[in-house]
From TrEMBL:
Belongs to the group II decarboxylase family. Residues 472-496 are annotated as: Disordered. The keyword tRNA-binding does not apply. It catalyses: L-glutamate + H(+) = 4-aminobutanoate + CO2. Signal peptide: none annotated. PANTHER family: GLUTAMATE DECARBOXYLASE (PTHR43321). GO terms for molecular function: aromatic-L-amino-acid decarboxylase activity; glutamate decarboxylase activity; pyridoxal phosphate binding. Transmembrane segments: none annotated. GO terms for biological process: L-glutamate catabolic process. This is Glutamate decarboxylase.
């Protein structure tokens, strides 16, 4: 199947005209289409291949202006150097790369320490590809634990009713995957205007003796809000007093907040200081400051991690526990995580996170000042700013229009509907990261004002342009939910 058109040649038809001295853009390869459906027959010089691919990728926009993603878009040169130099090591080969394995264990210990894991309880954990894999593992830990307890309590775990997981409707899609892959009912606690995180008044109504656990979210992807884990722990503790045979435990999905709160809100109690928090995950590639993909999951104790989840691999003549779903992957992200932990130290992390928060709060204040926006989240915990249009904003344009206009200056600022029960509310969100410095925030504010002015003066063909051009910010979420079964996956939502 040739991709050849009348105007483009393909690599296969290249002659031997290119010499080492030929300038890159004088080469045959730069004069033809890059391979698409079938490999080219002949090799291409590396310098030319590099430039062609780089050029092709360069037109997709720059990561710094991508205010959609939670994922790191900057690492310093020495960090990328050590990562590039360790790419060939396979993280799972603990016996062959014991020093790398040692660095991974150190990361688990240090991150566990940030979350107040008590070494006396023998906390355990692992690196993962990201929070998705980490949440899967946290979820499986809950499932295996529940199965054992339920069996011991004489509950029919196979036929009567499926096991269920309780979580707020603002969950990230990995939890839906977890429930679907392992046939678990997803019990969603709806979000409401005055409950934009897990509703503490109703959450326990969703719990029964088939509940494997409750997932609390530290940094709801839609809004950046934190679930009140301390309050949840109190409610769970009261429940557990009444149900000693089938106690409920909490997994905290700290994908974004897990590597943020310890530095900027050391007094916030959400982690292993709480009795019923048995596992926590974070994305090393979000506020853990490493390029994608790395995540972490830690269980508070040996007891919290069911044996079924552990596989043993040989390590230095002995055995080492592994519990990842994935097998082979490069060790470079682990090395990168170790690098940023060591290089920044607690103080360095704190400085970076506080400065990022500062920029996000500046942005929130400016948006408030503009008068037409209702601010849902003003970077109260993590540097997320989330806003909607006021009911009485008196403008004809929608946030989708504003999002489109901002793209013209390179800014990616997604607009999307809120999840279940609030899907009529459209919001827009900025995720500030370390490389979104104040000067860029000032520029964004200027550009927003300019684009809003353009929109205010624009003539609309119809009164309602909402959703006409919905640019697809779908990073894996959804907006409509019906208590865990049928899922509408069409609506664009931001999830990263
Ligand atoms: C981003 C995110 C995830 C998924 O994390 P990845 O590292 O992208 O796999 C899970 N939960 C929450 C709350 C998130 O924000």
């Amino acid at each position: 199947m040739k991709e050849q058109t009348s105007t483009s040649k393909i690599l296969d038809s290249m002659d031997e005209g290119t010499k080492y001295s030929t300038p890159i853009f004088g080469s045959e390869a730069s004069d033809v289409a890059m391979p698409r459906l079938k490999m080219n027959d002949k090799p291409v010089e590396p310098r030319i291949t590099y430039e062609m691919i780089k050029e092709y990728l360069s037109i997709e926009g720059n990561a710094t202006q991508n205010l959609t993603t939670f994922c790191q878009t900057y690492m310093e040169p020495m960090a990328t150097k050590i990562m590039a130099e360790t790419m060939e090591k396979n993280a799972i080969d603990k016996d062959e790369y014991p020093m790398t394995a040692d660095l991974e264990n150190r990361c688990v210990a240090m991150i566990g320490n940030l979350w107040h894991a008590d070494p006396a309880e023998e906390p355990m954990g692992t690196s993962t590809v990201g929070s998705s894999e980490a949440c899967m593992l946290g979820g499986l830990g809950m499932l295996f634990r529940w199965k054992k307890l339920a069996k011991d309590a004489g509950i029919d775990i196979y036929t009567a009713q499926r096991p269920n997981l309780v979580i707020s409707a603002g969950y990230q899609v990995c939890w839906e995957k977890f429930c679907r892959y392992w046939d678990i009912e997803m019990r969603l606690v709806p979000l409401e205007k005055d409950h934009l995180s897990l509703n503490m008044d109703t959450v326990m109504d969703y719990v029964d003796d088939h509940t494997i656990g409750i997932a609390a979210i530290l940094g709801i992807t839609y809004t950046g809000k934190f679930d009140d884990v301390q309050k949840l722990d109190e409610l769970v503790e009261a429940y557990n007093q009444q149900h000693p045979k089938l106690p409920i435990r909490i997994h905290v999905d700290g994908a974004s907040g897990g590597m943020f709160a310890p530095f900027v809100e050391p007094d916030l109690v959400w982690d292993f200081q709480l009795k019923n928090v048995w596992s926590i995950n974070c994305s090393g590639h979000k506020y853990g400051l490493v390029y994608p993909g790395i995540g972490w999951v830690v269980w508070r104790s040996k007891e919290a991690l069911p044996e079924d989840l552990i596989f043993w691999v040989s390590y230095l003549g002995g055995e080492e526990a592994t519990m990842a779903i994935n097998f082979s992957r490069s060790a470079s992200q682990i090395v990168g995580q170790y690098y940023v932990l060591m290089r920044n130290g607690f103080e360095g992390f704190k400085e970076i996170q506080e400065r990022t928060l500062d920029v996000a709060r500046y942005l929130a204040a400016e948006l408030k000042e503009m008068g037409v926006f209702e601010i849902y989240e003003d970077a109260s915990h993590i540097p997320i700013v989330c806003w909607g249009l006021k009911d009485d904003a008196g403008v004809e344009w929608s946030l989708y229009d504003l999002s489109d206009r901002l793209r013209m200056s390179g800014w990616l600022v997604p607009a999307y509907p809120m999840p279940a029960d609030m899907q009529d509310t459209t919001v827009q969100r900025v995720v500030a990261r370390a490389d979104f410095s104040m000067q860029l925030a000032i520029k964004l504010v200027e550009d927003m004002k300019k684009e809003m002015d353009t929109l205010n003066k624009a003539k609309f063909v119809t009164g309602n342009t909402q959703g006409v051009i919905r640019t697809g910010f779908n990073h894996g979420g959804r907006s409509a939910v019906d208590k865990g079964e049928k899922v509408q996956t069409k609506a664009p939502t931001p999830q990263k």
